[in-house]
Write a structure and sequence with these properties.
By secondary structure, the protein is an alpha+beta fold. The strands form 2 sheets. It has a 10-stranded mixed sheet, with helices on both faces. The chain is globular and about 60 Å long. 57% of the residues are buried. This is Amidase domain-containing protein. It holds the Pfam family Amidase. It comes from Urochloa decumbens.
Length: 491
Amino acid sequence: MVDQRLQVVAVVMGIIMALATAGGGSKPSGAFELEEATVDAIQLGFRNGTLTSAALVRFYLDQIARLNPLLRAVIEVNPDALAQAARADAERRRGASGGALHGVPVLLKDNIATRDRLNTTAGSLALLGSVVPRDAGVVARLRAAGAVILGKANPSEWSNFRPVESGWSARGGQTLNPYVLSATPCGSSAGPGVAAAANMAAVTLGSETDGSILCPSSANSVVGIKPTVGLTSRSGVIPITPRQDTIGPMCRTVSDAVRVLDAIVGYDKLDAEATGAASKYIPRGGYTQFLRVDGLKGKRIGVPTVFFQGKHGATVIKDLDIATNFTDLYDKETLLMNAEFKLSINAYLSDLLHSPVRSLSDIIAFNNKHPVEERLKDFGQPDLIAAEKTNGIGARERAAIRRLKEISANGLEKLMKEHRLDAIVAPNSDASSVLAVGGYPGIAVPAGYDKEGVPFAICFGGLSGYEPRLIEMAYAFEQATRVRRPPTFKR
């Protein structure tokens, strides 16, 4: 890990300092190919008649059939995916298509509800056969954009709120890293990250509470956008905590991720408070306008030393420290998660049209009745049990909320405002907790591979609503470095 941090520092120093005063690289050219196809290339194929949605879906279904027995990235495929693709092709022939995602297959993390023949289970056998009342808010937006719902991707079960091995669920088994099979795929959005990396879908959606997009994106050499909390709706998503949960794209390129982000942001009456508050951050004209190869020019970027664990922080502006003590961040975050998970999961379960379980206590009892399938001997369920013992938001929880707000205000917010920073940069998902407790955005971008071939990334993080400038920097960095390569499946 230290070796990776030093490599990230070298990349940051070598690229950002050069691009701060100059433009980036040129865009690649080449013939259209299904393997590694971008959203732009797919749409070009649709327009010039060299590709259909049905052919694209068949390609990804073949990829899943070939690779999933090894990688375990996909829990189930949508039996209606080909029919949706055929409908998109018919719309295109009538001239009725429009938008970057029309006819494009999307894999969803298995905590994102779909009102169709797919299950939504967070990887748990306890929710198998449950029936959701409606599509999740982000799924409704994807359907409105004409996207094809390809299937569900494997999460760490209950989004790692048991916890379990990263990328393992009772339904999906153990997801493997496609670059080095023995390396962690990280989680909890392991399946989406691996599926995107291994060309099992055009684009994928994950969710993050603390690191669950940024970490698997870093580990699997894909781009992950963790949006400002409330920028994307959480309605219909199996929850952990409304203070931190957010839904975002995990794709092979920054451009693809941004096109997905454009499609899924916006107000949702079923997540009214959060989406209403964050809607002010959505720029007129959307986010694709910030895909600029000179996006690092003139930016002020800090690399806080705390994220390099005692190493001298490589800095673009000056040595920076987050000038607040946040050694108690994890304890406060955990205390709140326990209480908020119980409230949130019970509310989610009560809204289901049918479910084998109706409460957190039912889930715990189900696991106890199925110890082999749920691997209780290996993982137990300590987080679930701790959450069940809570009794709502009381004095301790309110004090924890105040403390986390204080950590954010006196920490990252103060640092960025005092130094007029556009972003901080950290290795992989090392800044995830600081970003999580403040509801702040981050973008992970592939930055290289270690001597074993394991991917690593850099994360551009900022304050709420900083997505435009983070996209500019992430895109410029990606275009200048072009380090991402397809998986090697090294044993």
